[in-house]
């Protein structure tokens, strides 16, 4: 076996700052430098950062830089051959790992540093206190980026209030509940049990933001502290983005790791990886309870690793909202009652949703776990936007049976994007059937807006077009939408040319 074609992670570093004192605040660039040095220390080889020839930085939320990857290299005293900065997306840490695996196997990269950070907690605290942070000046231009730079929502979705994750993921959850045939109360209890599994893992993770190990009842019950956000998600089911967290990992080939003197017990191999994208706009998806791209990327990553999903011992499934975990389980073939760990960090609502960089923490945690249990296999999923961009990686501290298989997925990606899917009717009128819905609540816990997507029952040949609409702002109607199953309900649609809004009445 040619070890120069085997990508390995040789060092990881993580950092979490929960301090409420702004004198402790570190900007993202400083945190990335800190975790890079921790990753170097983790290799057991002093000075190894000096061999880095590729610096790859995950898109930073909460603070801007002129050229983050170059600035990180300068702060570390490095002179890399390349410095890359990604577009927005929670998929990007695993996407970078997969791409780095390709580059290492092809001989294009010797040692790569992948790093990311978010300082949204400190930035928010500074705004609240009226304090100007003494951090690097924000740039006037956007730095060049690698990866898919498209925005996640289209104009019609924005207009109807379906623009943010807290507004869109509840649509998926309600569609998923209906597809599984669960009652509202039954599904509420199911969500509590699922989230409790993640909260318990976070309780034992020193890097987690929340370590109180909330119970299923605490998570699923609406209280003044746990208000409803977007039905059916309470506050404790939502990813927490207001964190200060950073993570980094160092990748090279097994051959170079050996040459550099990195102890073999520090190596964790990337056995296989794959990336895929679903139909881009949410309102054009075939349905709201599946993901052909996750299914395909998972199958391809496992095939490249030479494994079946039943041979994986532990997972970190991207967990911004419960539906993301459930859809990943469905698409990967993980049974609902599977006892294997679904997270090694605690997930985004409890460990923390470190901007785009959460999955760097997942990769670091998987590496640390597999070093302790080298015979085991781990799988990481990562996603961007609204279950739109996906990346999957398979890891083990045991050497794989074959060399790295480079990604060449253009044909399959074209098939995913060109698969039949509904057309969106920007101006919706007539009868429609609900496919998914949510009710958005204010900070006082009161319902404010209903968002509904479904299919028009047109009289012409375009029957089956998708619509997006709002309900009337009637508190009694909005409350009733959280007390009964709305998927499958019929309503009348009208379009207001002045506002561009579609309204559905029941």
Question: What attributes characterize this protein structure?
Answer:
five-stranded mixed barrel, 16 strands, OB fold (Dihydrolipoamide Acetyltransferase, E2P), alpha+beta, 14 helices, nine-stranded mixed beta sheet, Peroxisomal Thiolase, Chain A, domain 1, 506 residues, globular, 22% strand
Concise structural overview:
By secondary structure, the chain is of the alpha+beta class. It is 31% helix and 22% strand. It folds into 2 domains: 3-151 and 240-418, Peroxisomal Thiolase, Chain A, domain 1, CATH 3.40.47; 430-505, OB fold (Dihydrolipoamide Acetyltransferase, E2P) (Beta Barrel).
Describe the fold and architecture.
- The chain has 506 residues and is α+β, with helices and mostly antiparallel strands.
- It has helices at 28-43, 68-76, 92-105, 120-129, 155-159, 165-179, 184-203, 216-220, 254-260, 292-305, 322-332, 358-372, 410-418, 475-481; strands at 7-16, 54-57, 82-85, 111-119, 228-230, 233-234, 244-253, 268-277, 314-316, 377-384, 389-396, 430-441, 447-456, 466-471, 490-496, 501-505.
- Strands 3-2-4-7-1-8-11-10-9 form a 9-stranded mixed beta sheet. Strands 12-13-14-16-15 form a 5-stranded mixed beta barrel.
- Helix 1 packs across helix 2, helix 6 (165-179) packs across helix 11 (322-332) and helix 10 (292-305) crosses helix 11.
- The protein is globular, with a radius of gyration of 23 Å.
């Amino acid at each position: 076996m040619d070890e120069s074609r085997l990508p390995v992670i040789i060092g990881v570093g993580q950092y979490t700052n929960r301090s409420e004192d702004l004198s402790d605040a570190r900007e993202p660039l400083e945190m990335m430098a800190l975790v890079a040095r921790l990753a170097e220390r983790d290799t057991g080889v002093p000075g190894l950062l000096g061999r880095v020839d590729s610096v790859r930085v995950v898109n930073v939320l909460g603070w801007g830089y002129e050229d983050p990857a170059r600035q990180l290299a300068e702060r570390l005293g490095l002179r890399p051959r390349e410095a890359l900065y990604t577009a927005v997306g929670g998929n990007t840490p695993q996407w970078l790992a997969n791409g780095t695996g390709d580059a290492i196997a092809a001989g294009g990269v010797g040692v790569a540093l992948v790093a990311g950070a978010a300082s949204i907690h400190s930035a928010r605290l500074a705004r609240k206190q009226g304090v100007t942070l003494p951090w690097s000046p924000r740039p006037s231009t956007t730095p060049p980026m690698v990866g898919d730079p498209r925005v996640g929502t289209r104009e019609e979705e924005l207009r109807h209030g379906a623009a943010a994750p807290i507004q869109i993921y509840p649509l998926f959850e309600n569609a998923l509940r209906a597809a599984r045939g669960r009652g509202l109360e039954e599904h509420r209890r199911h969500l509590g049990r699922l989230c409790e599994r993640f909260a318990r893992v976070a309780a034992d993770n020193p890097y987690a933001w929340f370590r109180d190990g909330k119970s299923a009842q605490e998570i699923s019950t609406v209280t003044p502290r746990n208000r409803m956000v977007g039905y059916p998600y309470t506050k404790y089911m939502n990813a927490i983005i207001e964190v200060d967290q950073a993570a980094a990992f160092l990748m090279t080939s097994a051959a170079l790791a050996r040459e550099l003197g990195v102890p073999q017990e520090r190596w964790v191999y990337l056995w296989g990886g794959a990336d895929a994208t679903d139909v881009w706009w949410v309102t054009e998806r075939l349905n709201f309870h599946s993901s052909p791209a996750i299914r395909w990327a998972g199958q391809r990553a496992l095939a490249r690793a030479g494994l079946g999903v039943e041979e994986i011992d532990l997972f970190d499934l991207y967990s911004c909202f419960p539906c993301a975990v459930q859809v990943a389980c469905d698409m990967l073939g993980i049974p609902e009652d599977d006892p294997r760990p679904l997270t090694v960090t605690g997930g985004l609502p409890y460990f923390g949703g470190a901007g785009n960089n959460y999955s760097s923490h997942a990769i670091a945690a998987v590496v640390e776990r597999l070093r302790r249990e080298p015979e085991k296999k781990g799988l990481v999923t990562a996603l961007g936007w609204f279950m739109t961009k996906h990346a999957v990686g398979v890891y083990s501290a045991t050497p794989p049976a074959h060399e790295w298989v480079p990604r060449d997925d253009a044909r399959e990606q074209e098939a995913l994007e060109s698969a039949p899917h509904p057309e969106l009717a920007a101006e919706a009128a007539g009868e429609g059937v609900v496919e998914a819905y949510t009710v958005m609540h204010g900070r006082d816990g009161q319902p404010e807006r209903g968002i509904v997507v479904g299919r028009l029952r047109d009289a012409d040949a375009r029957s089956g077009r998708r619509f997006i609409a709002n309900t009337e702002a009637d508190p009694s109607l909005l409350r009733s939408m959280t007390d009964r199953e709305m998927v499958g309900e019929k309503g009348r649609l009208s379009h207001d040319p002045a506002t561009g809004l579609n309204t559905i009445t029941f």
